[in-house]
Design a protein that fits this description.
The radius of gyration is 19 Å and the shape is globular. It is 47% helix and 15% strand. It is α/β, with parallel strands linked by helices. Strands 1-2-3-4-5-6-7-8 form an 8-stranded parallel barrel, surrounded by 7 helices. The protein has helices at residues 6-16, 31-38, 56-69, 82-90, 104-114, 137-142, 157-161, 163-167, 179-185, 195-210, 224-232, 243-265, and strands at residues 21-26, 44-48, 73-76, 95-101, 149-154, 174-177, 215-218, 237-240. The N and C termini lie far apart (64 Å).
């Protein structure tokens, strides 16, 4: 099992050593884009099933592409639901991202979704997770399932109020700041640079770090100023961008370059 979960263990080791890591979102169906991003030098991938059209039949190809690139792949499921979690775990995702966690009980439910009895309630059927028999079921139910990372999203006012208790739930590996939904929860949707909202972000990061938990942010912008802010408040997993954004930026740059050249010719 060491080989199978080596990527996850190495990522945890780097976090424990105090490194700040960078990841990218995957939002489109084409696994070739996942391969391109995976080979670019990011530390991990966030494959999103909550706000995209990625379904299970395509997800498996994204996970295959990620493994080919030797990059950890975390999958955000649409809701904190054991029925949704189970097949994704059986596909061999390196971690699950649970949205809209509000209370410690929500966090406990999420953790238990990932673990077999007596630690949780996950049903047995880890086909690809055991690499189709390369690792025995005994190995997997002994230690393998415990290596799956459980990433908990803090994006409601209630979650902020319960942040210390959520962080203390056994098995919670990472706390996630959801900037947009958190801003909305405090009455200022999309006002992510508002001083009050930024204090909320800072509070979540501080409480997470005080509990010894890595803190991750999911943000579209990868501008230098944006990256600097998240690093400055103690976020140590900064997740940025997506395929449409990268493509759009590249197209805009190409056209701007062309127009500059043509203006010079004229």
């Amino acid at each position: 099992m060491e080989e199978q979960f080596g990527l996850t263990k190495e990522l945890k080791r780097r976090l424990e050593a105090g490194e700040t890591l960078i990841g990218s979102h995957v939002t489109c169906n084409d696994p070739l884009l996942t391969e391109i991003i995976g080979n670019a030098g990011f530390d991990y991938l966030w494959i999103d099933m909550e706000h995209t059209y990625i379904e299970k039949t395509m997800l498996i190809n994204h996970l295959i592409a990620a493994r080919a690139c030797q990059i950890p792949a975390f999958v955000r499921i649409p809701w904190n639901d054991q029925v949704l979690a189970k097949p994704i775990l059986d596909m061999g995702a390196d971690g699950l991202i649970f949205p809209m966690i509000r209370t410690p009980k929500d966090a406990e439910y999420a953790v238990q979704s990932c673990l077999y009895p007596p630690y949780g309630v996950r049903g047995y059927g880890p086909r690809r997770a055991t690499q189709f028999g390369k690792y025995s079921g005994k190995e997997y139910i002994g230690e393998g399932h415990k290596n799956i990372m459980k990433l908990i999203q803090i994006e409601t006012r209630e979650a902020v109020e319960h942040i210390d208790a959520i962080a203390a739930v056994p098995g919670v590996d990472v706390l996630i700041i959801g900037p947009m939904d958190l801003s909305g929860a405090f009455g200022k949707l999309a006002q992510t640079q508002d001083p009050e909202i930024r204090e909320v972000y800072r509070h979540v990061a501080q409480r997470g770090r005080a509990a010894g938990k890595p803190v991750l942010v999911s943000t579209g912008g990868y501008e230098e100023e944006n990256l600097r802010f998240w690093a400055s408040i103690g976020v140590n997993m900064i997740t940025v961008g997506n395929e449409p954004g990268y493509l759009t930026d590249g197209l805009k740059k190409t056209l701007a370059n062309f127009r500059t050249v043509m203006d010079g010719v004229a």
